[in-house]
């Protein structure tokens, strides 16, 4: 009997023991995520300050594929009631949203707290809680106040103090109702991608000095915001705080490239995880050495990745209550050949490591140029993280894929099935403690440089309609069933296994 007929037989007899166990543990948390700039609109509503994304999309509309911007986006600034209703329709246990720093603090500083900004997030948080949905709040999802960018933004070490002042306002205003906090979303994008590609906001190229100043400042800002919560808010509110990393899983192209793949993982993930989650703290030693060697060859007499002092290492180490993982895609990695040029992140090449990346032919492509489908990558990533940082709690804080417009999004369902199956294998076979999962994203939104043309939503949004009507896709139905049953229905992918 082949595999397929076994599955069919088991289904008919309703015998679960002879098929894979596809049930998530009781209490597993299901959510969906959005980010302020991608959905809110209301870019100049009331006293809101300008963000780096407002500035980029207005001054450089040509940098956005379809010349759109986030001025209105999904208009969630006005349509938040409908967003809550959708979260309820899906049966979400939590909704991951981000706060716009310049909406809450128009000057970037806490000298003035916007009354309307405060009311907006209070309404959203209270509305979710009324429906039994937990708000899961990110403080920073890329929309830095332009006023702070003008002072150097993430390359100025003072940004850690500016950030912690903002975090204090958010914890003070919302901490009584928010139990899950992400300080900073995807340092890899904020630093490495921004300063080495020039395709995101702020459009500043500084792949060497700027990117690495940013790396240290982001880690320090996170640590300060974590320590503040730990000391002043946790005793009252008992919440959990972490940072969300972006993960690209690197596979060696050939066995000889294993060491290079490991270094690439440290460059992508370890840079922002080792200081916080490892037992020893500080930069990943192999990466610090590789970068040191590279930059001294470039003629720099001082380390370009700013070293941590011993005091800073202690201060940063352990500043987490769980591990938050955003993951979409993978790369094959190999040494560069003579004369080859490097594509900056997010394609994953690393000039400092002399490393080039490729797509395995079996990994299907998506509309997003950086995005290839490789479900096994998420399992391998989870296992790697557990090996590196121990048996800690993991929450998948973003996962999903882009598709064309249209309601019958079987390729999105396929993606969720395959990635969730790999997450289950990581949990059941490899003992990785994953306690929650977040679909990216609740609804189509402003997808950064891809504008409105690239659809990631469980709900379709009609951007031509002033009412921004939201309609559930087939995947919304799939996801709500998954949440209801807490069990993965493999459906059509069963035949492929
Ligand atoms: C807000 O921005 C829109 C363009 O998105 C513009 O038409 C409107 O005049 C601006 N409102 C204010 C108060 O500046
Ligand atoms: C997973 O982590 C959660 C949160 O720390 C904990 O309550 C739970 O006991 C852990 N589960 C396992 C199987 O270790």
Automatic annotation (TrEMBL):
Pfam families: Glyco_hydro_1 (PF00232). This is beta-glucosidase. Its EC number is 3.2.1.21. It comes from Spodoptera litura. InterPro entries: GH (IPR017853), GH_1_N_CS (IPR033132), Glyco_hydro_1 (IPR001360), Glyco_hydro_1_AS (IPR018120). Keywords: Glycoprotein, Glycosidase, Hydrolase, Signal. GO terms for molecular function: beta-glucosidase activity. Residues 1-18 form the signal peptide. Transmembrane segments: none annotated. The active site is at 398 (nucleophile). GO terms for biological process: carbohydrate metabolic process. The gene is LOC111350790. Homodimer. Belongs to the glycosyl hydrolase 1 family.
């Amino acid at each position: 009997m082949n595999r397929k007929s076994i599955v069919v037989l088991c289904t008919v007899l309703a015998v679960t023991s002879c098929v894979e166990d596809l049930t998530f543990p009781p209490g597993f948390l299901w959510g969906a995520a959005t980010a302020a700039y991608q959905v809110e609109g209301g870019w100049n509503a009331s006293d809101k300050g300008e963000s780096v994304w407002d500035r980029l999309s207005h001054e450089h509309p040509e940098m956005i594929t379809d010349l759109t911007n986030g001025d209105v986006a999904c208009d969630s600034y006005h349509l938040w009631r409908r967003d809550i209703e959708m979260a309820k329709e899906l049966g979400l246990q939590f909704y991951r949203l981000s706060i716009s720093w310049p909406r809450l603090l128009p000057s970037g500083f806490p000298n003035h707290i916007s009354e309307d900004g405060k009311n907006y997030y209070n309404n959203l948080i209270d509305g979710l809680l009324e429906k039994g949905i937990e708000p899961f709040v990110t403080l920073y999802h890329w929309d830095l106040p332009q006023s702070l960018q003008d002072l150097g933004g993430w390359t100025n070490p003072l940004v850690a103090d500016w950030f912690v002042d903002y975090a204090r306002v958010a914890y003070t205003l919302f901490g009584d109702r928010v139990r899950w906090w992400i300080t900073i979303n995807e340092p890899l994008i904020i630093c490495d991608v921004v300063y080495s590609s020039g395709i995101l906001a702020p459009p500043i190229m500084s792949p060497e000095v700027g990117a690495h100043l940013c790396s240290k400042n982001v880690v320090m800002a996170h640590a300060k915001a974590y320590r503040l919560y730990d000391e002043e808010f946790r005793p009252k509110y008992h919440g959990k705080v972490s940072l969300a990393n972006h993960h690209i899983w690197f596979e060696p192209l050939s066995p000889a490239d294993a060491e290079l793949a490991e270094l690439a993982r440290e460059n992508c993930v370890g840079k922002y995880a080792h200081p916080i989650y490892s037992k020893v703290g500080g930069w990943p030693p192999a990466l610090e050495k590789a970068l040191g060697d590279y930059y001294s060859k470039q003629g720099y007499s001082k380390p370009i990745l700013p070293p941590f002092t011993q005091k800073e290492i202690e201060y940063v180490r352990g500043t987490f209550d769980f591990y938050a993982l955003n993951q979409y895609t993978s790369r094959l990695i190999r040494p560069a050949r003579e004369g080859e040029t490097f594509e900056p992140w997010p394609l994953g090449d690393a000039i400092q490591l002399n490393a080039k990346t490729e797509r395995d032919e079996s990994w299907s492509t998506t509309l997003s140029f950086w995005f290839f489908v490789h479900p096994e990558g998420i399992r391998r990533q989870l296992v790697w993280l557990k090996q590196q940082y121990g048996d800690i709690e993991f929450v998948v804080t973003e996962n999903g894929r882009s598709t064309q417009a249209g309601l019958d999004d079987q390729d999105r369902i396929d993606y969720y099935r395959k990635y969730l199956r790999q997450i289950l294998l990581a949990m059941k076979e490899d003992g990785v403690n994953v306690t929650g999962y977040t679909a990216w994203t609740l609804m189509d939104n402003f997808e950064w440089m891809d504008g409105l043309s690239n659809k990631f939503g469980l709900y379709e949004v009609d951007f031509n309609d002033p009412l921004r009507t939201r309609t559930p896709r087939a995947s919304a139905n799939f996801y709500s069933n998954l949440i209801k049953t807490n069990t993965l229905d493999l459906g059509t992918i069963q035949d492929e296994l």
